[in-house]
Amino acid sequence: MRSFRKFIDISTHINGTKVKNNLPYVSSGIPSLDHIVGGGIPAGSIFVVEEDVLGVYSKVLFKYFIAEGVACDHELFVTSLDEDPHKITSELPQPCALPPEDEKAPSTDAEKMKIAWRYEGLSQVESSFGSNTNLGHNFDLSRYIDADTIEKSKIQYGTTTWQDSTLSWQTTMRRGKLKSALFHKLLRNIYETVLRSSGTNMLRLAIHSLGSPIWMAMDSDDTEFQNYGRDLIMFMYYLRILIRDKNVAVFITIPSHLYEDPIIMKKVLYSAHNAVRIESFAGSEKETNPVYKDYHGLFHITKLTALYTLVPFVPPSLDLAFKLKRKKFVIEKLHIPPELEETSEREQDDITATPSTACGGFRKKDIDF
Amino acid sequence: MKVKLTTSFYKRMSDIITSCLQLQKNISTNRIVVKEINGCDGSFIVNCVISYCIKQNSPLLIVSSHNSITHYHNVGLRMNHNLFKSCEAGVIDYFDFGDATLTNIMEYAESDQLLIDVLKKIEEMQRNHDTVNIIFDGITHLLDLQYTLQEVNKFCSEIIEIAAKSKNPFVIFHCNDVMEDDANHCLANLLSHKAQTVVEVENLSSGLSSDVSGHLTIKYPGNKFNEEHIHTVDMKPKKYLYKLFDRGVKLLAPGTV
User: Fold this and answer.
1) A97: which residues sit within 8 A by CB, 6+ positions away?
2) Residue A245 is nearest to which of B47, B68, B255, comparing CB atoms?
3) Which fold has domain A10-98+124-342?
4) What's residue B89's pLDDT?
5) ipTM of this model?
6) Residue B183 has pLDDT above 50, yes or no
7) Residues 6 or more apart in contact with residue B179 via CB below 8 angstroms
8) Cβ of B50 under 8 Å from any chain A Cβ?
């Protein structure tokens, strides 16, 4: 009788990783994010974060990813054109032994919710994820990793600068060639870094705000509108090819809300492996909506790919929201708060009908089977 | 009642895709197009076809620009076959199109030769085997690399033409259909026009489910000239729901979940 035996070479185990589907997975630094994307970021994959409008929360995720790399002693490559990457790394959250707890405001008896006697004995619904994970560290956002540790860590900074955006790499469009010198220089930087990396340690590539107006300056000068974003799409494809089957995890934030044409992002995501989108409530009408009063924004899972397996991960819920506390960033299952006041049925409909992804938000015709 | 899934059951699960693609029938140059709609991942079809070729000992050339061979190998291990061993045996051959393009750009070489290299590779394999089947994984990436629609379409026609020189081969083009008003969509339609069989895989529009992975629609535009369908004006496509397992795929009739 033939049978397959799972073969895992223990000698090649890398610090800060766990093996799943014969592939090392690294933590994003946020246990709840790791949980909803299937246990972390697999090696040889690209993780894309579609930024919120102000780019505040996506930067928090970006810092978590780098901080986790520093804590695990991974090799790091950090680049950004919109901000000084040294400044980003100087504000990395500090690892802590236990999950940081934010101080709760003392609740008065009047605020306490009355629970019907038959439900009183039931355990509380767990809406947060990843509390019992053994991959990755916990971080305290209120404290920064000291400069000495950052200096000693294996961080390499991208050498691309915004001055490169004025240079044209190719004078005419040619097959398979990047037109912008910015993208070409970054790709070459990454190519050399990947070649140099030992392979026995994990390399984390962190690119902040890729495809922001500075990156796209060359495309804006182009007379043909259809060429807008072509370098970004091509770069993402080359990056996918470059890092596949290697011990490299890529984390990229992209300001997708700036692109008028939805095709750009769809093509970018075709080359990415996993993708999420942050929808912040800041400045939107949802900020004052009572349904969302406990959260700072919605968290959308845009893409989940199955790498080295046929079956993609199915997250516990797609109705996700996030909140940024003083000490940590948490992603939770979105719960609509209990309706305590007496309202007419019409008003209630108006509140719950607003979010397209909220609990029970779909109609019968949308059901697939 | 919970049914225990045996190895033979999984074997049948992967066979169901290949029978839908009519690989068992001796069709002269069976042209198949796999369309990924709504960001769906249709690489499981490639895996099922690889599995079929290994079991049938039928020579296959994989031209890949999207997934790596290591991905297909690792999936294959769960499906009870070893892709690397088959490569060593010479049954399966591989052309890494993505890697070749990347090397070109890093070494400042021209990319024009690449498409010719693919055609040469097919001809080289044909010298050693009577039949050479071909899979082009991620053909729409050529458009991302600034090849024109005309060039890609001509290239696909040339692949079909060269493949036809061997005995009853099949050619599979795996493409991503992003949006209706895009070149990718035009390419997918152009290829579908040439195709014997068109397979459309689509994500569930209502979200993700642990019971069903997506929709699968199979059209047979090549069959409309067959005797049995000669009086049919509009052939109805076959529609299924599919569920992916570690070792294969299960097709379900709509409404049976």
Assistant:
1) A138
2) B68
3) Rossmann fold (3.40.50)
4) 93
5) 0.92
6) yes
7) A262, A263, A266, B185
8) no
